[in-house]
Amino acid sequence: MKIGNLLERIKTNNTLFLDVLLLIGFILMGTLGRAMLVGWNLQPFPNFEIIMVVTFLAAIFLRPTIAFFVPLFSMIFSDLLLGNPIFVGSQMNRIVLFTYSGFVMIALVNIFNRNRFRKGLSELKLKNIGMAAGLGVGFVLIYDVWTNIGWWYLIYPHTAGTLAAVFTAGIPFMIYHMISGVFTFVVIALPIVSYVSMEHKIEMPFKIKKFHKLPVVVVTISLIALSFTGTAMHVTKNSDVWLEKSDKTSVTIVIQGDGWTVTDHVVAYAGDTTVFSVVKRCAERHALAFKYTYYASFDSTLIDQIGDTANGNGGKYWQYYVNGELPMVGCDKCKVSNGDFVEWRFEIISY
Hints:
The chain has 351 residues and is of the alpha+beta class. 53% of the residues lie in helices and 14% in strands.
């Protein structure tokens, strides 16, 4: 029995069964594809990925109420396989919300234009190749603009200059991502959609009602809203931050005083990338008192006071941590890197 006839029979007898079968297949395709490309270092060039095209195919062939599960679960499962920090402490790593919501946004666009996109890729013609390539570029632009805004929002001061710097630094990676989009949509999406449309004449999916699209809209809006809420949290490791080759070093800093907390994102530049320079700049920005003493015998600087909290009060002293670890050098000797999480705590020091 031909595959087309089998699918048509399943479609006729049990549409939900076929939807679930395709859902599992697309999730496996996205999960294993991303895990192998990244985890096995099989990417032919940076930012080559298949989640985008899998999201597109799911939106074309699945009902909207379950199509948006494909990018979400593909990202979650592949992150787990790759050991990426989906959760940091008790709170979700917020850049995950931007990356996940970016793919759900792509799913939403596809779902509302599925009939037009499917018709445009129904045959293997030159103009359809152009459309497939255009879709790959367009979706990459939407996704990369959104995630670049996320990086800027999470780890940079909210100024027009830093926003421009983030987008400028990301141009090479956006170009690579566009090449990935063109390749995967022309080589994967176009053949699959045209094969189903031309060879088997399977009307899949049937016409859907507008309220079936509502769950995708709700999920997309919810993820977008969540991306911009809450306090700043630890972002990905230095090796995962694509701005690492820039001359700018962006870190998240949290200062926990006696009954108060300050959270900020500070950009340090070449020659000024120590924990001391970062906390000093943060204190100046928030108009906090900042006192310190340099001890020549140790060739190190000790922080005496931040804000209204001074050493010795209640037997507590200022101590700093970088990415949750206690460095064994003075704060003026400890260098920071892109994506580092610096925390100053006023606590009882035990040795």
